[in-house]
Design goal:
Chains: A mainly alpha (295), B mainly alpha (473), C alpha/beta (279)
Number of helices of chain B: 22
Shape of chain B: globular
Order of helices and strands of chain C: EEEHEEHEHEHHHHEHEHEEHH
Structural class of chain B: mainly alpha
CATH architecture of the largest domain in chain C: 3-Layer(aba) Sandwich
Helix content of chain B: over 70%
Oligomer: heterotrimer
Radius of gyration of chain B: 27 Å
Number of strands of chain C: 11
Number of strands of chain B: 4
Number of helices of chain C: 11
Radius of gyration of chain C: 19 Å
Number of domains of chain C: 2
CATH class of the largest domain in chain C: Alpha Beta
Low-confidence stretches of chain C: none
Distance between the termini of chain B: 45 Å
Chain lengths: 295, 473, 279
């Protein structure tokens, strides 16, 4: 029994940790989809850009400056992507905006490759969360414990924001009915911008936690986590924040269980198998709602 | 008009025959050599005699290129000793450019025949058919000639080869996304299936042990002829598409996109799985399979495939696909079985994606599953968008533009450049792709309809003024 | 019952807890023109959609030419929610897809006009001839179906001529004025060579003169193609002038049924409408 725990605990902890990090990204996807019915392919690249920002800023500034500045940078980046790539296409057919999203992702990746010349950068160690701790028999970094706690705290704050503030109500209204909200006088642009900024903020936090564990930063580092976070959002019911969080934790944990069992090559494929499964049997996800088309 | 065409065609036929005649005549270099360097002149100069002998030896060995090079050197070294009159100069020209001249001759002959035929045709349809035949012949003759002049491995030919392959991939994706309205992002997966199928069945038997070194030589121990393997590649991809389509095609557009993306990633993971290594070589790459050299091969295969797709789209089945794109509910109400037709579009598109994958494998000479990422699908999607969703000619055009830009024209942006002592800012490795991505975003944002929109390229539209019937909304 | 073209038995349609159609039964005999009328939101188009296979009803059955094409009964989840009037339902589940129903000979038009937006007028009608082309993929691609293709094209032209849209055949379908778009939808439905035509508000947006022309037109095509017609309509003049019988729906329930004169005088109908509904 003891051996079983000591052998598998590291994987379980890693799963919870990475699950929380995926959750940070997944919330961004699910919020944007809820409002704009758009899959923001560039979100994963914003996540990566946050990591690069931290690398460069920390090289020239002390931590108490680089940390908030990284967050600010990421938020501005997310806002800009929306303004440049999505706003002009608001009245365009859905496929166009999805293609723009892919194009934006492509551009961001190439930009990052260009600026960094493709060499892997080492993520700076953030004190305290990089500290090594021992739980039972497993040694891991502090970040593994911090992540789920921080995730829950932030999600709770977000849910409070959505349910008890004016802007939150506006966001709920827009995700229910875009056109009518507009007619009712809700400032759509503001709502959309806020949504993107919140998503990017969370992605920045997520990247700080994630790259403390996986310290090699390359332009494509965010692609897989991004994709997995997206699957988490779909799994939980796209448009539902609690769903996205639960989905993310499930993916993180099962992914690591698969690694524990020894089928490492399939740990990524599992995510997609899960995606296919949920799309076939319950396309609206765990907590999603079905929309009827009027004929 | 008729008489003019016939006279012109006769003239061209004569020119063609002359070209062919001279080309065939100029095949014998040793005879030509005797003309250029007469016996007496040769016997006077020992160096000259040696040079002539060297050329004849090369010819005896069958080394045409060497012989030609030696001849050129001889002509440089002994300008006043050689006998060059109009006749020999002409022969020399035809010898040097033999392939080109012969091709040109055959082409002009074909052209004159086509011209003669069209003089007797009444229907517009048949005239267009002749025109198309001429254009196709021009294309292939042109490529052959250019390749001979410029060299098989030059940048131009590289762009043409890769462009032809991507043209097929773009058209096959357009069939699914642009014409049937099914937003699928699984292209890379089907390309991968096709590439691997082709590679596995055409690796030389003698090399199998080497390629499959970790898997005891691999499971497949025979080789199939190239064309059969290509066909098999398409069929394998189509088969996978059929299976995947069963659950996936009833999903709404966004979900279809991510489901197909997911399947592509699953395929990529499975093909790298160690357990299947005896077939797929696990995570190692496949190599030493049959490849092509000339650009004519991908052009021919792509050309035939694109022609088939074009025929499909302009048939009653193609119209049904477009109906599904425009309004599914109405299409179904008009008697079109949605599931069957969506499957049809999906399977056919994937069949050609598989063939494209096989061609890509031949072009790259090595294949590795890890390289067939979703980024590859995105590139093809971007090509389709730039060319115009719903336009075959747009996809073809955009494909060549895309490849030319990213591989060739924009390369200078990657090089550190100085004007005098001023270092041009930004120019260094990676800038090319940045500029490229920006251009794509500009097209996506401001020229949504792409180059051709959903119209096809036609000479008629170039000559007629724009007709009415404006698009609303 | 031998000469009934279409028979609806106790059709109930619920969306979640909302009852759109409640225990609706009608009979349409061959060569009749039958109308379904009722205030907005009464459930008329929903009934149409159940009949043409777009979604199965919560319970009830549909017979076309005495053949069962749609049949459903509330399953486990729906049973609890079921609030319809009829309590005994045959335990059969059949739901032909719309394309199969069209192939059997029932064609329809749509309330919100669903033309093929990127196609021309001619192409819109041509697509509807596909179901009668008996050729497979290969013969279509390699043009071995030349004769069938020519026949289909001729048929499409004929249909356009019937509705009077031949001159605009190469215009983009969406560039036509509203009234012509409605006629195009009818041409498209006719091109499927139906035995029965279901028209969903064919006169919507038309002025009285156009409506009168439409009435005349429906009578003509009914005679010429030996059709049976079932229509949903708000324009009372059209309904009263051409219908043989009328069914009146209100809040999903059938409240009256009979000849135009009978229905016109029915107090329940007048109450439901609170006067005439003029669009």
């Amino acid at each position: 029994m003891y051996d079983f725990i000591s052998a598998n605990l590291p994987y379980l902890l890693a799963g919870i940790s990475v699950g929380g990090q995926y959750a940070m990204i997944a919330i961004g996807y699910t919020m944007v989809y809820g409002i704009l019915r758009l899959i923001n392919f560039a979100h994963g690249d914003v996540f990566t850009a946050a990591a690069y920002a931290m690398v460069y800023m920390n090289a020239t500034m002390p931590l108490y400056l680089s940390l908030p500045l990284t967050i600010l940078f990421t938020v501005i980046l997310g806002y800009s992507v929306e303004r440049i790539a999505y706003k002009p296409l608001r009245s365009a057919p859905r496929m166009s905006i999805m293609i723009s999203s892919i194009g934006a992702s492509y551009l961001l990746q190439n930009l990052m490759w260009y600026i960094t010349s493709g060499l892997a950068r080492q993520y700076p160690t953030i004190p305290w969360i990089s500290k090594t701790v021992t739980i039972f028999t497993a040694t891991t970094k502090m970040v593994t414990l911090v992540t789920p706690v921080l995730t829950l705290v932030l999600v709770l704050l977000l849910v409070q924001l959505i349910n008890h503030t004016k802007i939150g109500m506006a966001m709920r209204a827009v995700s229910k009915d875009f056109e009518t909200s507009r007619l009712m006088g809700i400032k759509i642009n503001k709502v959309i911008s806020v949504t993107f900024m919140i998503g990017s903020f969370l992605a920045a936090i997520g990247s700080m936690l994630y790259f403390t564990n996986y310290t090699a930063v390359v332009p494509t580092a965010g692609a897989m986590p991004g994709l997995k976070a997206f699957v988490a959002a779909v799994f939980g019911g796209i448009g539902s924040i609690p769903g996205a969080v639960i989905g993310a934790f499930i993916i993180g944990i099962v992914e690591n269980i698969i690694k524990a069992v020894g089928l490492t090559t399939f740990s990524d494929a599992f995510t997609f198998a899960l995606l296919i499964f949920i799309l076939i049997f319950k396309p609206t996800g765990l907590f999603g709602e079905v929309i009827h088309e009027k004929v | 008009m008729k008489v003019f065409k016939i006279i012109l065609s006769l003239l061209l036929a004569i020119i063609a025959c002359l070209l062919i005649f001279f080309s065939i005549n100029a095949l014998d270099l040793s005879a030509l050599l005797k003309e250029i360097v007469p016996l007496e002149t040769m016997q006077q100069d020992a160096g000259l005699e040696k040079a002539v002998k060297r050329i004849n030896d090369c010819l005896a060995d069958g080394n045409q290129n060497r012989a030609l090079r030696s001849l050129n050197r001889l002509l440089d070294d002994y300008p006043d000793k050689v006998h060059l009159d109009v006749q020999t100069k002409l022969d020399l020209f035809f010898y040097r450019n033999n392939k080109v001249m012969l091709t040109l001759g055959v082409y002009v002959l074909f052209f004159s025949a086509a011209l003669a035929v069209s003089a007797f045709l009444k229907q517009q349809k048949h005239q267009t058919a002749v025109l198309v035949a001429i254009l196709v012949a021009s294309l292939y003759a042109g490529i052959y000639i250019v390749e001979d002049l410029v060299g098989v491995n030059s940048m131009l030919m590289t762009v043409l080869k890769k462009g032809a392959i991507y043209a097929l991939l773009a058209v096959s994706m357009n069939l699914l996304n642009g014409f049937t309205g099914l937003f699928s992002l699984g292209q890379a997966g089907f390309m991968l299936v096709g590439a691997y199928t082709y590679a596995i069945f055409t690796i030389e038997n003698t090399s199998r042990a080497q390629v499959y070194q970790y898997y005891q030589g691999g499971l497949v121990q025979f080789t199939l002829p190239t064309l059969v393997a290509i066909l098999l590649a398409g069929l394998a991809a189509a088969f996978f598409a059929f299976l995947i389509g069963l659950p996936v095609l009833r999903l709404k557009s966004d979900y279809l996109a991510i489901a197909t993306l997911g399947f592509a990633e699953i395929i990529r993971a499975v093909l790298q799985y160690d357990g299947l290594g005896r077939i797929t070589n696990g995570s190692n790459l496949l190599r030493k399979f049959t490849t092509f050299n000339t650009a004519l091969f991908p052009f021919a295969v792509s050309g035939i495939c694109i022609a088939l797709i074009a025929l499909l789209i302009h048939s009653t089945y193609g119209r049904s696909f477009k109906a599904i794109r425009d309004d599914e509910v109405a299409a179904e109400a008009m008697g079109i079985n949605l599931f069957v037709y969506k499957q049809l579009a999906f399977v056919i598109s994937s069949f050609f994606a598989g063939i494209g994958g096989a061609l890509l494998a031949m072009y790259q000479t090595t294949v590795q599953a890890a390289a067939f990422t979703s980024a590859m699908t995105y590139e093809i999607l971007l090509i389709v968008v730039i060319g115009g969703m719903g336009s075959i000619s747009g996809s073809i055009l955009a494909s060549f533009l895309f490849i030319a830009s990213s591989e060739w024209w924009l390369r200078f942006l990657d090089n550190v450049t100085y004007i005098g002592t001023f270092k041009v800012p930004f120019f260094r490795s990676g800038f090319r792709m940045v500029v490229f991505s920006v251009i794509i975003m500009v097209v996506v944002l401001f020229y949504r309809k792409g180059i051709m929109g959903d119209k096809e390229f036609s000479l008629k539209s170039l000559m007629e003024p724009r007709k009415g019937g404006k698009r609303r909304g | 019952m031998a000469d009934s073209m279409l028979k609806l038995n106790n059709i109930t349609m619920q969306f979640g807890g909302v009852i759109a159609v409640d225990d609706f039964s009608i009979v349409v005999k061959q060569n009749e023109i039958v109308a379904i009328i009722g205030p907005n939101g009464a459930g008329k188009t929903t009934a149409f959609n159940c009949v043409t296979g777009i979604y199965p009803p919560t319970s009830g059955q549909v017979f076309f030419e005495n053949r069962l094409i749609v049949s459903n009964y509330p399953n486990k989840k729906m049973k609890a929610l079921y609030a319809g009037g009829n309590k005994n339902f045959p335990k059969e589940k059949v739901c032909l897809t719309p394309d199969k129903i069209t192939r059997l000979g029932m064609a329809r038009t749509f309330q919100n006009i669903r033309l093929f937006k990127s196609q021309t007028v001619f192409e819109n009608v041509l697509i509807a001839t596909h179901l009668h082309q008996k050729c497979n993929l290969f013969s279509a691609v390699f043009r071995l179906n030349h004769q069938q293709e020519q026949a289909a094209r001729k048929h499409a032209m004929d249909m356009l001529e019937v509705v009077g849209l031949l001159e605009v055949k190469d215009e983009l379908a969406t560039s036509l004025p509203y009234g012509q778009q409605r006629r195009l939808e009818i041409a498209r439905a006719l091109a499927t060579k139906p035995k029965m035509l279901l028209l969903d508000e064919p006169a919507a947006g038309m002025n009285p003169q156009e409506t009168a022309e439409l009435a005349q037109f429906i009578r003509q095509i009914k005679e010429r193609f030996r059709l049976t017609v079932l229509l949903i309509e708000h324009h009372m003049d059209l309904v009263m002038s051409i219908s043989d019988r009328i069914y009146v729906l209100d809040f999903g329930r059938l409240i009256a049924h009979g000849t135009p004169e009978q229905v016109q005088d029915d107090p329940k109908v007048i109450a439901a409408y609170l006067g005439e509904d003029e669009e």
